[in-house]
């Protein structure tokens, strides 16, 4: 009871919506499970893990990596952009949440088009699963924010610290994506050990900053759903980072053992 009371200092009261309450649990559990599966070696088939199960590759419809990534992010971006029309003039906090989600996915679309260099394919079933996750989570987060209209503000306002975290996360993520894109010269397809930025300490700093970014959005939102989705995303990216570090260790004999998966000096 005391813990619930303490949490309510940071959150809007849970909304009277069975859908949002169910999605809060589903998002947390499904993303955490996906992270655990990554650690066990059962990966979503994109990026380094696109060929994780070659025996089944011919049985699956394949998209080019670039097309697959565009499919992942475009519906969520459109959901964020449409929210300004569907939920207009609902206050500063809602506008910040709408803007942050829309900017996050717009940035990802631009990175797919102009930053990343792709050489492989993505399984259509993995692409559809991730696309639905991004779209539903974005739409649900925006709807949960809409349901806070008329409710008392949380006693502790995390909105402005959230904006700071969001911008640290989005720029840190962009910078490390840029470093990754510079690893390959024209026509090159092979992977290399990343360098620069925080790559000297962790193999997935882009995931670290994405987590920071989503905690920023959660702080701005201060809804139960936003924090549930962000916690689930944290579990998933921890699992994916550990799997990525293991992949680099298996591919490069000279991989520096002091480089952690996600958190410098810790994990």
Structure description:
- There is one protein chain.
- The chain has one domain (24-185, 195-251).
- It contains 9 helices and 2 strands; from the N terminus they run αααβααβαααα.
- The protein has helices at 2-7, 18-40, 54-57, 65-86, 92-114, 124-146, 159-181, 205-221, 224-251; strands at residues 62-64, 121-123.
- It has a two-stranded antiparallel sheet with strand order 1-2.
- Helix 2 runs parallel beside helix 9 (224-251) and helix 7 (159-181) packs antiparallel against helix 8 (205-221).
- The two termini are 32 Å apart.
- It comes from Acacia crassicarpa.
- This is 3-oxo-5-alpha-steroid 4-dehydrogenase C-terminal domain-containing protein.
- It is found in: Membrane.
Topology:
Layout: H1 2-7, H2 18-40, H3 54-57, E1 62-64, H4 65-86, H5 92-114, E2 121-123, H6 124-146, H7 159-181, H8 205-221, H9 224-251
Antiparallel strand pairs: 1-2
Question: How helical, in percent, are the residues?
Answer: 55-70%
Strand content: under 5%
Number of strands: 2
Largest sheet composition: 2 strands, antiparallel
Strand order of the largest sheet: 1-2
**What is the H/E string?**
HHHEHHEHHHH
Average pLDDT over all residues:
89
Rounded to the nearest angstrom, the radius of gyration is 19 Å
Low-confidence stretches: none
Overall 3D form: globular
Transmembrane segments: 18-36, 67-86, 122-143, 163-181, 193-209, 215-238
Organism: Acacia crassicarpa
Membrane topology: Multi-pass membrane protein
Keywords: Membrane, Transmembrane, Transmembrane helix
């Amino acid at each position: 009871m005391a813990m619930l009371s303490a949490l309510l200092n940071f959150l809007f009261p849970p909304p009277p919506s069975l859908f949002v309450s169910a999605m809060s649990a589903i998002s947390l559990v499904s993303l955490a499970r996906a992270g655990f599966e990554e650690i066990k070696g059962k990966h979503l088939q994109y990026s380094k893990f696109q060929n994780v199960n070659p025996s089944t590759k011919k049985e699956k419809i394949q998209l080019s990596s670039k097309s697959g990534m565009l499919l992942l992010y475009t519906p969520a971006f459109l959901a964020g952009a449409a929210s300004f029309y569907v939920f207009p003039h609902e206050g500063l906090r809602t506008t910040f949440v709408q803007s942050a989600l829309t900017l996050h996915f717009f940035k990802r679309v631009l990175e797919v088009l102009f930053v990343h260099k792709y050489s492989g394919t993505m399984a259509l079933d993995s692409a559809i699963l991730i696309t639905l996750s991004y779209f539903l989570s974005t739409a649900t987060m925006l709807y949960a924010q809409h349901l806070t209209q008329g409710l008392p503000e949380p006693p502790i306002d995390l909105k402005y610290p959230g904006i700071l975290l969001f911008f640290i996360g989005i720029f840190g993520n962009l910078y490390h994506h840029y470093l990754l894109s510079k690893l390959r010269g024209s026509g090159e397809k092979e992977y290399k050990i990343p360098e620069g930025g925080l790559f000297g300490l962790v193999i997935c700093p882009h995931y670290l900053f994405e987590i920071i970014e989503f905690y920023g959005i959660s702080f701005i939102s201060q809804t139960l759903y936003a924090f549930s989705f962000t916690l689930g995303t944290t579990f998933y990216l921890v699992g994916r980072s550990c799997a990525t570090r293991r992949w680099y260790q298996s591919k490069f004999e000279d991989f520096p053992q002091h480089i952690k998966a996600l958190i410098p000096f810790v994990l």
